[in-house]
Amino acid sequence: MKPSWNPRLWWGFALALAAMVSYPLFFARYAITRDFPWVTLLLLAIAIFLLATGIARAFQRPDAYRGKVAGSILGVLTLLLVGFFLTVIFYMARQIPASHGAPQVGQVAPDFTLPDSKNNLVTLSALVDSSFAPNGSSAPTSGAEKTAATVLIFYRGYW
Asked: Which pTM does this prediction carry?
């Protein structure tokens, strides 16, 4: 009897490759799958399971299934891919250099000018020194009511 093709080996390796490619091309776009890559890790776990069962099948029943050599090679390649992915995601991505020039908590922010949502230039010092209208009215009531503080909101990238 001629040994038959062992699809678990090839499906496992193909799924591992698909998981590696799908994370930067698709899953990194969305916060739910970017902040913790649970979908990619699940796909990699399924790929390792398929590959392990394919290798076990090839070595336990060599008369029925092929793939001792190919399974060993694909298994090593898959483990290297998974190790590379885990190293990049959980170690290298967390190695952010310290920002020595950034303002610390409680420190006064330096004056700057940036465009607002309507593309008008806004200066921080002008916002702090401007009067404001209480309770959402459109005109300020008197010059005595000044802005007590300004909240700066910084949005994360990936848009």
From this structure: 0.60
